[in-house]
Every structure is written in structure tokens, then in C-alpha cells.
Specification:
Helices cover 39% and strands 28% of the residues. It contains 3 helices and 5 strands. The protein has a 5-stranded mixed β-sheet, covered by helices on one side. Helix 1 (25-37) packs parallel to helix 2 (54-70). The longest helix is centred in the middle third of the chain and has 17 residues, at 54-70.
Length: 101
Amino acid sequence: MSDGSIRRAPDGRLLLAGELSFATVPRLWETSRNLLREDGDLHIDLKDVQRSDSAGLALLVEWMRVARQLGKPIEFLNIPAQMLAIARVSSLDQILPLSRG
């Protein structure tokens, strides 16, 4: 199991890495709360996510909710195939702001 992490890149993107699971998402949510409130649009890059379950998808939905409350645009970049498959099954791929990069 690989812990999940989130950090700000020099270009302003938020880089997500490791595992997004029921075990890691609560800590990621706590860590991300201040990052979401920092200046700038929210571009969240998921290219280094190794594994995700439905908790990871729930985290993305929660970030969308917070972004809306803050009046900030949000975009998810490089969503892994496994995560996209879960999103498609639940039709969340229709509402998540997904981008190829």
C-alpha cells in the first residue's frame, strides 16, 4: 500500500500521488483544505495516483463542492484509467471537470 499525498507544484498545480482509498482519503482531505483556499484556480493533477477506490472519487466530488463555495474554477488533470472507470459506472464522468493535461 502506498500512502496518498498532495502538494503544490511550482507552477501552481496540486499534485496528487500514491493511493486514494478509504484509508488515505481522510488525511488527504485534511491536508488539502488549506491548499484549496490558497490563491489561484484549482488544477489538480492525478497522474501519479497509483490506485483509487470510490473514496478517491468522493474526494474529487468534495473538492468540486468546496471550489464552488469558494467561487473558484477546478479542473482534474490526467485522471487514471481505474478512477475514470469508477466515475463512468456512477456517471460522475459527466459532472467532473476532467482534462487530459
